[in-house]
Amino acid sequence: MKTISENACFGGKQGVYSHASEVCGGEMTFGLFMPAEAENDPVPVLWFLSGLTCTHENAMVKAGAQNWAAEQGIALIFPDTSPRGTGVANDEAYDLGQGAGFYVDATEAPWSPHFKMWSYLADELPTLIEDQFEVDMERQSITGHSMGGHGALTLAMNLEGRFRSVSAFAPICNPTASDWGRKQLGAYLGNDESTWTKHDAALLMKDKGFDGPVLIDTGTDDQFLDLLKLETLAEAATKRRQQMNFRMQPGYDHSYFFISTFMEDHVTFHAEALYA
Amino acid sequence: MKTISENACFGGKQGVYSHASEVCGGEMTFGLFMPAEAENDPVPVLWFLSGLTCTHENAMVKAGAQNWAAEQGIALIFPDTSPRGTGVANDEAYDLGQGAGFYVDATEAPWSPHFKMWSYLADELPTLIEDQFEVDMERQSITGHSMGGHGALTLAMNLEGRFRSVSAFAPICNPTASDWGRKQLGAYLGNDESTWTKHDAALLMKDKGFDGPVLIDTGTDDQFLDLLKLETLAEAATKRRQQMNFRMQPGYDHSYFFISTFMEDHVTFHAEALYA
């Protein structure tokens, strides 16, 4: 593991690190905020998965999460959204290829050699971070934005018992039925749509739900609301009586101004579960 | 004035606007955060002047100031750091020309036709903002980072009675004696160094001081400390018994991670003066 940068931040440390990823077949970069408390004891962790076009950096510099994580004594992990670099397949569209991994393990050419974001986040990166930092991986929660909200919800519901709470900002909820999803799931996973269902938060919510609290925030002026299909998640969660706080925030859009506004609520929400 | 973007943010609105600047001879862009309180009454304003290479955008997306400004009911103005565009002089160096206006009115070629950031911030932009938004320009305070800390301190001390309080993050304090300053003041103002002194915070502090509270934060690990010459400001302020809180923050560097960490303190500090 290489240290790219470390900056003092809210009494703790904001680091950026890279490492040779076996599952992604190349160098991967991630951000990690460690609160001051980690000097004494392992701290619980909150994952933040980012949206289309983002790297590890966007949320790290724009979401304002470190303040609240420092207050709560929680580590923040900011993974990248895809493998990158020369030799890694890409597409000219902003919503496919590098910056758009969609948190799946690709099985189709040309994506399958590197695009293994599911395994990377479910197995490889948590193992590395547990090994290298003072974190308590018995206490993990997860959140994300847009495509990253999709990732957070699908990881949380599939990896039963892994995460104590899950939240999302304007998540992609029903990718098997949206232009933000069908194109990517088809490209990465192929035409057999039965392989897609474990990557659809609304279908997972209908099928199994989440064993813990769920918080969802979306702006009423979100310019991508039709693509996110929030209503499918709301319906499925309501029908199964899922413990959930589902909020439509008046006037907010899809931007980091929206995310930063409600970040304190999300970190506090996760802290309650992590310290329960 | 043109609206570039407006996003809901912490109950208020983060806008980006551009306008034809008479003094800078071209289009200028600025960010403006208006808290919810502005819907009822004019609100006090806090200026944030940015550092080298920055635009109106850096602090707006990375400093986390809107949260605290919303709490205090204060507007935030994020001006650009120089004129820009084709037809505007530039230099290959990061610290001269576009992105490096140094908050002076250039008198020398090739800079003098456009580089009038002093007049822009002292006169033109406040007049425009007072005219277009629900702000109370009787209640203004000012802060900034690095080159912008220099701008904040020099504007505050020169424009007596204009600002109720001034603060700075890692400000350039003594540009007439630093490589961050001599090059630029020489290029913009010429070789007669008597014209430089009104743009040197340490000299101004020695000569006249500031009629109000001053807050300065700098990291002990700031990689540019030798260029900032904080000690000259500390000495001058101490000698004249200036009301001041001058803090060296252990382990922090020059980055926005440092700025965001102490932004709450700065906004709270200014709020006390603005609502006194």
TrEMBL record, chains A, B:
Pfam families, A to Z: Esterase (PF00756)
Top EC class for this record: hydrolase
EC number annotated for this UniProt entry: 3.1.2.12
Coiled-coil zones: none
Keywords: Hydrolase, Serine esterase
Domain of life: Bacteria
Keyword Zinc: no
Catalyses which reaction(s): S-formylglutathione + H2O = formate + glutathione + H(+)
A Gene Ontology BP annotation from the UniProt entry: formaldehyde catabolic process
Active-site residues, as the UniProt record annotates them: 146, 222, 254
General function of this protein: Serine hydrolase involved in the detoxification of formaldehyde.
Family the UniProt entry places it in: Belongs to the esterase D family.
The name this protein goes by in its record: S-formylglutathione hydrolase
Protein's organism: Planktotalea frisia
